[in-house]
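User: Ribonuclease E/G, Salinisphaera aquimarina:
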Amino acid sequence: MSVSAINVPGADEPRVEILVNVSTGETRAAQLENGVLQEIHVQRDATGSVVGNIYLGEVQRVLAGMQAAFIEIGLERAAFLQISDMVRRAAETEDVAPRIQNRLNQGDRVLVQVSKEPMGTKGARLTTDLAIPSRFLVYMPYTPRIGVSARIENDDERNRLSAAVSSIREELGLTGGFIVRTVGDGAPHHALAADMRFLATVWQDIQEQGRTVAPRTLLYGDLPLPIRMLRDLLTPDVAAVTIDDEAAWREMQVFTRRFAPEFTDRALHYTKDVPLFSQYGIEEAIERALQPKVPLKSGGLLVIEQTEAMVTVDVNTGGYVGTRSLEQTVLRTNIEAASTVARQLRLRNLGGIIVIDFIDMVDAAHKSQVITALTHALDADPAKTTVGEISPLGLVEVTRKRTRDSLQHLMCTDCEACGGRGFIKTGDTVCFSMFREMSRLARTREVRELLILAAPDIIGLLLDEQSGAFAAVCTETGLSVRLQAESLYTPEQFDLVVM
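Assistant: Predicted structure for Ribonuclease E/G:
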């Protein structure tokens, strides 16, 4: 279906859209609400996400003092497993804390799942409490409970779903537990049963492989990003999922026809010459999300700094002086900042400890209003968050669950020129931007020959690590390209000159 076929909801209804851009080496998905970018997901062919992957690991070292172990699963760095992330055995009582040295020895084979991405110098975080997702359910083979997503608020529907899953589990003779996902709201009985049969088959395959394959082997991997967006986010609230790649769009059509036929017409193929993310202003929004300063509509300003230990957010009135008293000016700026901070944490995927330095307030009622505004704004965040009270120093501590790299860590690297005090885009990020610009030029202009001017390191990438992707773009676009290294160019700078 073409993009023009989308039905536009009424002005009072929130419009949720998902845009997926597929380009050489990289796939990106953007989630919009009323035209405003809320989340961005990036999957690179060479460094795809490993969260959710299930491996047959091999114990490298047991750390009794930390009650943890390093597990080799075939990644660049050994992964980390804590005793608190291991399934409790039947013989272990609640009164006696299990000890990891009684559970694991060096060289043991163990079935593990990645719960957090490798970040910086840290390896991936693991769990033995496996969870396998499907369209409506998450299957937990080692946990007997049945749960329903807290975002399904209707008590009658919660009871119906819980009873249905319980009865189907008994009918199929399955062990383990299930959680009904948010997209399961309203799911019919037969659809839940189909999901449970599918998950049981996946789990059986994992177990059979785990008995025969060598350690450090991937047994189960998550779906490609476009299909994952459909599985995790496609609900009646989503007006459309638009993708600019025909092959991926056809795969999405197959998925929706099989698992969500009522939503098949919402998977749309974007065919315009203007790049999808440029058409919707996503490229500019991503660039802004990589900057430390975030302007507020009132004229105030946020300064967001990400460090190894925490994220700090400083709130300033900037050019906003208000029209009434100082107290009202500060209150208005802080309330606007609270809403903006919540969106920026989600957009930049910032997690861990976040410390917000709001503008000092004296009135206790004003402090309460700001905390209420921040808590309400964070309610829309799918990641688990907690909000503390305003300290005597005017600081608010927020924690946000972190499972993958932030946007800055994914797309940027430390700048050698400034001794690591700032950051620049990685060479891969610059190359992928260049590929997209080449594709845009080929679609919108009569171009056959092109001269690319870039920093020597970028030219080196195009001739070495990215040579395959570069050749593929040249073939797809039909462009004849000549490369020229410019020593005075910064690592992020490049020019495409039409010959």
